[in-house]
Amino acid sequence: MKSIIYIVSLILLTFLVDPSFAQTDELFEKAELFMKTNVANGGINYKAINENSTTLNQLIALISSQELSAINEPDKKAYLINAYNILVISQINKSYPVESPMDIPGFFDKNKFEVGGQKMTLNYLENEVIRAAYNDSRLHFVLVCGAKGCPVIENFAYLPRNIEQQIEAQTTKAINNSEFIKIDGMNATILLSEIFKWYAADFRLVSENNIEYINKYREVKIPSTYKIKFYPYDWGLNEDLTLSKEEAKQIPDGEGDATLIPIQPTSTKTNLQTYTAGSLLKKGQIDFTLFSSVYSESKTNWLGTDYTGFRSTFGSELLQFTYGVSKNARFNIGVDLNIKGSSTGQRTETLFLTTKNTDSTRFGIAYIAPKIKISPFKGSNDFSIQSTFITSFAQHPEGYYNPDESGNGNLYWLEWDRYIWWTQLYYTKSFAKDKFQLFTEVDFLFRFAKRNTQTSHLDLPVSLFLSWFPSKKLTLYTMTQHVPRFVYNTGKSTINDWVVGSNYTQSGVGIKYQVAPSVNIELLYTSFWRSINAGQGETFNLGIKYVH
User: Fold this and answer.
1) Element (DSSP H or E) covering residue 405
2) In terms of domains, do 225 and 373 share one?
3) Region of poorest pLDDT, from 121-125, 170-174, 414-418
4) Pick from 236, 238, 240, 237: which is nearest to 264 by CA?
C-alpha cells in the first residue's frame, strides 16, 4: 500500500514540477486575456496592439520556448491553434498599418518563427504540423489568417479542457453564417468560400461532397441539387478598431457601470515603405507613379579626354501605370509614358516648364511603352521580372545637325531612335527585424538598330538600394548604380562584334514619406561621378506614387 502511495505521489510531483505544464498554462491564460482585450465584432484591434505589444511579445516568447514533444494532448492541439493565430497577429503587428496580410512579403511561405523550439513558416505550421497531426477538417474554421475572408475570429483562446467543443461550435457558427456560406435560392446555387476549394481533400475525408459536409452543421439544410460556386476570397485585413475595456475611457453612469467610447473606424492604410519597383499588385489594384527627373551635365569623357566648359540639361517626366491581373499577385500589366526635354545653356525643360522647339531646346513625348511584370516562382514575393518594349514616336528622335546659311537648322536630341527591349530583374530582402531593406536590380537593356547606319547597344545596369525605416512613414535610403554599355558595330565598322562602348557610375541619397494611406512622395539626388566615353553630372528627382 505504501508503495502505491509513493508511486502516485511521485507522479503528482512530476506534474507539479514539470515546467512544460506551467508554460502551457501561462500561454493559455495570457492568450485568453489577450483575445478578450483585443478582439471584438469578429475583428482584431491591431492599432491597440501596435501601441502596446507587451502581452503579444510575452506570448511569442512562450510559443518559442515550449518544447512540442513535452506537450500531451489535448494541450498540444490547443497550443498549436493558439500559436498559429497569435503568430498571424504578431506578423501583421510588425508591418502595421497594412491593408492585407498579402501586402507583407513572405507572410505565409517565407517568414519563419520559432514554434516549440523549431523554425517554421505559417504554411509549414498549418500543413506539416497541425493538419498532418490531426486530419481534422474543422480546423479550417479556427485557424484565422488575418483576412476578412477567413472564418471570424473570436475573443477567446482555445483551451485544453473544452477544445473539441470550441472547435465544433466554431465550425457550426461559420457554416451557418450567411456571409460565409451564401445561398442563392433563385438560381439554386450555393456560394462557398475558396477554403472549400483549396482544402477539398480535407472535407472529402468526412463526406463525398461539400454540400453533404455543410449540411451536417446547417440548421437549414441545402438541397443536394444546388450548384456549387466559389466567391472571391477577401484578403482585406480583419481589423476592428473598437477600444478594449482596459483602454476605453470610462464614463460612470447612474448605476456605477461604464460606457465604452469607441474609436471611429478609419480606413486601413497601405504600408508603402517596403514597396519597390519589384513589388507586384493583387487583382484589381493599381499603381500610378510620376517620376520627374532633371539631369544637368557639365563634363564628359571621350576616348580618355575630359571635356568641360559647357552645360546641357535633360528633363524627363515618366508616368507609369501598373494594374494587377491575377489574384495571387504574380502577374501585372502596365504602360509607361515618357515626356522629355533637353537644352543647351542654363535652361531646364520638364513637364512644368514647357517650351517650343528651338535650335538649342526640344520638348515632347519620347515614347509610350507597354510592360508586363511577373513573379516567376510560386510562393516567392522577393524576386520578380519586368519586361518593357520601347519605341519612340517622335520624328527624328535623336535630332540632327544641319545648319543653313544663317546657322539655323539644328534639332536637339530627345530619345534613342532604336527598338528597345528592357528586362529588369528585381530582388528584395528585409533584415534587422524589418528595419532595413536591400533592393537589388539587374537590367538587360537592348537597343536594336533600325537601319544599317546605326549601332546596336546592350546596357547592363546593376543597382543597389539600401533603405532604413526610422518610423512607419519615413524611409531614408542610399543607392549606387553601375552601367556598362556594349556596342555592336555592324554597318559602321569592319568589326562586326560586341565591344565595350562606355560605362558610368552614379550614387545618391533619397527620402520617402507616406503622406496619405495610399500616397508616397520621394526626393532623390544622384551624382554621376565617373564615366568612360559618357557624360558626368547630377540629377534632381521628385517621385509621387499612388497605390490603390
Assistant:
1) none
2) no
3) 414-418
4) 240
